[in-house]
Design a protein that fits this description.
It contains 14 helices and no strands. By secondary structure, the protein is an all-alpha fold. It folds into 2 domains: 102 residues, Hypothetical protein, domain 2 (Endonuclease III, domain 1); 101 residues, Helix-hairpin-Helix base-excision DNA repair enzymes (C-terminal) (Endonuclease Iii, domain 2, Orthogonal Bundle). Helix 2 packs antiparallel against helix 8 and helix 5 packs across helix 6. The radius of gyration is 19 Å and the shape is elongated.
């Protein structure tokens, strides 16, 4: 089965498992989504959802967030990873939204990526989920699954994003991003993963990838990206 055939089968399978995937971060609009996604870096969604209700009650928009101040923001998000830096970034980006964007979140990737603490993945989530702009955010989890499934030999998330966009139709990107994340959480963990019984890895992962993936061992480390896999795994995953 070549890469496109695998992608088509995976897309159909994920659509059945997760027909209407929703962003797992509590938010009310583009601004609160932006803040929540920024907070989710190196922090679980569950932890973010614990701290954002009080934060957004105190500061639901950029003007209120600026008025709240970085120290008060930090007090709300202190249990999140990298909290001091995130607090400063949230305060600064809120001021920039007021100064440069009339207090609104821009629906443009480049303008979002220019904001403090906002990288390509965060910007892609916001334009896709808040504005419906086609984007395919790829994080390390999606990067790992794309390699396991033989959809990408990308050495990093940028290359994996390119590969996934090439095999999935643009109209499916918004849902697929969330569907792959949910599938990874439910069925395809980084460690202690049984590829044979996984609903997708069981048929999509090649023998070479199975042999190269340390996540299949109970005490294995997180799965390696394709750059660290064997040459055989790379060859088997290439488009025929």
């Amino acid at each position: 089965m070549n890469r496109q055939a695998r992608a088509d089968r995976i897309r159909s399978q994920l659509a059945v498992l997760y027909s209407e995937p929703q962003v797992p971060l509590t938010h009310q609009d583009a601004y609160t989504l932006l803040v929540a996604v920024l907070l989710s870096a190196q922090t679980t969604d569950a932890r973010v959802n614990l701290v954002t209700p009080a934060l957004f009650a105190a500061a639901p928009d950029p003007a209120a967030m600026v008025a709240l101040g970085a120290e008060a923001i930090l007090a709300h998000i202190r249990t999140c990873g990298l909290a001091p830096t995130k607090a400063r970034n949230i305060h600064r980006l809120s001021q920039i939204l007021i100064d440069d964007h009339a207090g609104e979140v821009p629906c443009d990737l480049a303008k979002l990526e220019a904001l403090p603490g906002v990288g390509h993945k965060t910007a892609s989530v916001v334009v896709s989920q808040a504005f419906g702009v086609p984007a395919f955010p790829v994080d390390t989890h999606i990067h790992r699954l794309a390699w396991r499934w033989g959809l990408s030999t990308g050495r990093n998330v940028v290359e994996t994003e390119r590969d996934l966009k090439a095999v999935f139709p643009e109209s499916s990107w918004r849902d697929l991003h969330m569907q792959i994340i949910y599938f990874g959480r439910d069925h395809c963990p980084a460690r202690g993963h049984d590829l044979d019984t996984c609903p997708i890895c069981g048929w999509a992962a090649s023998p070479a990838i199975r042999a190269a993936d340390p996540g299949r061992r109970a005490n294995g480390a997180a799965s390696r990206p394709a750059s660290e896999a064997s040459k055989a795994a790379k060859k088997s995953a290439q488009t025929k």
